[in-house]
Amino acid sequence: MERPERAAAALGAQPRANGCSGAAHGGLRNGYVRGPPASDTQIDRIVHNGGLYKRPFNEAFEETPMLVAVLTYVGYGVLTLFGYLRDFMRQWKIEKCQNAIEREEQKDFVPLYQDFENFYTRNLYMRIRDTWNRPICSVPGAKVDVMERVSHDYNWTFTYTGRVIKGVINMGSYNYLGFAQNNGACQQAAAKVLSRYGAGVCSSRQEMGNLDKHEELEKLVARFLGVESAMAYGMGFATNSMNIPALVGKGCLILSDELNHASLVLGARLSGAAIRIFKHNNMRSLEKLLKDAIVHGQPRTRRPWKKILILVEGIYSMEGSIVRLPEVIALKKKYKSYLYLDEAHSIGALGPTGRGVVEYFGLNPEDVDVMMGTFTKSFGAAGGYIGGKKELIDYLRTHSHSAVYATSLSPPVVEQIITSMKCIMGEDGTTFGRECVQQLAENTRYFRRRLKEMGFIIYGNEDSPVVPLMLYMPAKIGAFGREMLKRNIGVVVVGFPATPIIESRARFCLSAAHTKEMLDTALKEINEVGDLLQLKYSRHRLVPLLDRPFDETTYEETED
Amino acid sequence: MQELERGSSSESVPRSQTSPSACVSSTRPRLLPLGYHFWRPLRRKQANKQRSMRARSSQHLQQARMRARRGDGSLVLFCRVKMNVGVAHSEVNPNTRVMSSRGMWLTYTLGVGLLHIVLLSIPFFSVPVAWTLTNVIHNLGMYVFLHAVKGTPFETPDQGKARLLTHWEQLDYGVQFTSSRKFFTISPIILYFLASFYTKYDPTHFIFNTTSLLTVLIPKLPQLHGVRIFGINKY
Questions:
Q1: What are the structural domain ranges in chain A?
Q2: Where in this chain does the record put each Aminotransferase class I/classII large domain (chain A) (predicted)?
Q3: CA angle B194, A81, B142 (to 5 degrees)
């Protein structure tokens, strides 16, 4: 693994092959790496990213067309007005109220809930509720069986028809390498371990829950990541929320990306450190925050911060963007802070051998101080891990809340992780793992290219297996989900307030288990639905990210 | 009162460890004239300080005391980050950003234009009546949606901080003189000018237009942020 300082020298060398035919430095298209690399690369200049990237970094977030934005607001406006009308009718008993209401005896009390806060749920969400929480009744592999349900009162209640929709192409599961299966080597190994160890551990790691399987897993994870030591936990969410408080505390500073996951945000909040947010993937914003933090120190006393921790994710699952890791590491070294990288979605999915975003950029895993990830996505199991230096992990073994209080991983799950990880590394004697990683990369490139050619607006990086397709209008959210299910494809749709108001989207998660035929079928149906719903908004105007002005006047709530 | 003085007097003492940033003010902050900030928006801490210096009533004084204690003159923005379950961003209250998002101003302008055209199409209304009606209905709608309805139509992870705040008070988390606020302050004034012109300054129309303009301009004043007169619309 080359260090960033030598990245410039390596720029002319063989590009990595992650399904990407790469290009010499002259052909890099991303607008970031420009010109020949300087012969003497100092760290200060690397911050302005001359020669940090060995491969094209193509990320695009096409701007919303103005007409679409106006129509989206009109749509929300009409829905709001109808919502008020329906509320009025419900209040005057013209229409039956299906929501829970206060009891008659308690009408004069101070109300428990403010019914305006429920406005969006009962007037907008209920109308398209059937696109979410669909019960499935098979293993969520490349294809899944969905239980059919109908509603006779506009989604307030559902009844099962008894039919099962079989063979729905699953574009919603985080099944990146296709290990979510109920047959195969992983399943057999897990079944054997289940009959030997049982299902539960009945204790936390520190008491009686430390099995030899856990030790084996941790050594394997450390070897997989290329770090000194690792520790595994039972729940991915709990890994973040319970370990960040163990690493930082009062008097420390956390610099967190705008779009970080709730687990990172919760962990940061529980730690008691000061939190500052930088704009999503915007290195100038991050550098400004770092400079200000070091120059001004802590708020009132001006003392230097005890620690500065940068929280980023490998792949952001709602945007499909990949973190600019070379620049983050260069910044981290320049300002002497620590880096916590959450590879929940990128481990197994990026990099020529699936080692994650660090390998994808060709960096040294020792540069990342805390490498966190989950086993839920690419390994088909459950749980999370943290990898890093031996002193760090030994400290976490005693100080982490997860280690002390939470139950340890269940043995069959551990065996699933071990088998799948060995498969990815190629240690089970086959090249199946490597093929999966390459298949995923090919699927990603193919799917994204085809969707862009069709004219949809797709967010995110070209190599990210998470593909958000923009829908924008509230009615299209429901329509897209339903039409796709009619055509036997299961997708995940997201709308306001989970996303910004004009950026509702459908999110496809690609898998190595998807064959080209499945992708072609899916693309054909998406094309049809796109024509039907008029979703092809793209005008092929890619906004280069460098030109996006860094808005200094952001107004955020102050700290208490 | 004493805490206010303490807060402001600490600003005039020069710090022994001065940071090289030019933004840290070591002089006593001036009380700038009221209209000054309309064109040069302040950052939140400065806005709070200005507001705290103008505070006279006890309610404002209490809030001002809380804010003066927090302020220290530094220009770095602090952010409170909440756990947002199931959302793709760390925005605590999406309502604060709605009015400044892309295309909102255009939609609003088109909506007002559509309302006017509909009113003009009704054969019973003369042009002055149509203009006055546009003005009045627009101001009525603006009052109801921006200054009467409180809270958010969805649950926010900040445990209901904005439950008693109208949408206007929630905009940009309470920072005054942002671009959205300026836009939505100027647009009823422009509509008033147009209505006055097209009604040829007729006295009856003037009374209607002016009163409805006042109902929509007075709640927008920064001095009336969070103020509920006679307890109307308090809870």
A1: 185-425
A2: 167-526
A3: 30
Query: Greater confidence, A543 or B35?
Result: B35
Read off the pLDDT of residues A46-65 as tens digits, 9 standing for 90 and up: 444 567 788 888 888 888 89
Instruction: List C-alpha distances in Å: B18 to A128, A439, B6, B24, B25.
Output: 57, 58, 20, 9, 10
Per-residue pLDDT at B25 exceeds 50:
no
Q: Decide: pTM greater than 0.80.
A: no
Q: What residues are paired with A165 via a beta bridge?
A: A146
Contact state of A63 with B154 under an 8 Å Cβ cutoff:
no
pLDDT digits (tens, 9 = 90+) for A342-360: 999 999 999 999 999 999 9
Task: Give the pLDDT band (50/70/90) at residue B34.
Answer: low
Per-residue pLDDT, A61: 86
Q: How far is A321 from chain B (nearest CA, A)?
A: 12
A–B: how many Cβ contacts below 8 A? 155
Give the residue carrying structure tokens 């607001």: A73
Mean pLDDT over all residues of chain A?
86
- Any CB–CB contact under 8 A between B94 and chain A? yes
> Which residues contact residue B85 at a Cβ distance below 8 angstroms, ignoring those fewer than 6 apart?
A262, B157
DSSP conformational letter for A462: T
The reply to whether A262 touches chain B by the CB within 8 Å rule is yes
Which of B159, B187, B15, B174 lies closest to B82 in space, CA to CA?
A: B159
ipTM above 0.85, yes or no: no
Token digits for A236? 């991915």
> What's the distance, CA A531 to chain centroid?
29
What span, in angstroms and rounded, lies between the C-alpha atoms of A369 and A450? 38
CA atoms lying within 13 Å on the CB side of residue A538: 21
Distance from CA of A70 to the nearest CA of B (A): 5
Of A174-178, A369-373, A443-447, B83-87, minimum mean pLDDT range: B83-87
* CA–CA distance, A547 with A542 (Å, rounded to integer): 11
With an 8 Å Cβ cutoff, are A318 and B86 in contact?
A: no
Mutation target among B19, B69, B90, B169 for the A interface, most CBs of A within 10 A = B90
Contact of B90 with chain A, judged by CB distance below 8 Å, is answered with yes
- For residue B77, which residues of chain A lie inside 8 Å, CB to CB? 276, 554-556, 558
Task: List all residues 6 or more positions away from B81 whose beta carbon is below 8 Å from its beta carbon.
Answer: A256, A265, A268, A269, A275, A277, B90, B92
Task: Using a CB–CB cutoff of 8 Å, tell me whether A552 touches chain B.
Answer: no
Q: Which of residues 169-198 of B touch A (CB under 8 A)?
A: 172-173, 175, 178
CA A172 to CA A184: how far, in whole Å? 22
Please report residues of B whose CB lies closer than 8 A to that of A497. Answer: 87, 94, 154
Query: For A185-425, CATH number?
Result: 3.40.640.10
| Residue among B45, B86, B64 at smallest CA distance from B2 | B64
Residue of A70, A78, A110, A315 to mutate, testing the B interface (most B Cβ within 10 Å of its Cβ): A70
Question: What does the alpha-carbon distance between residue B147 and residue B185 come to, in Å, rounded to a whole number?
Answer: 13
Please tell me which residue of chain A has the smallest CA distance to B17: A302
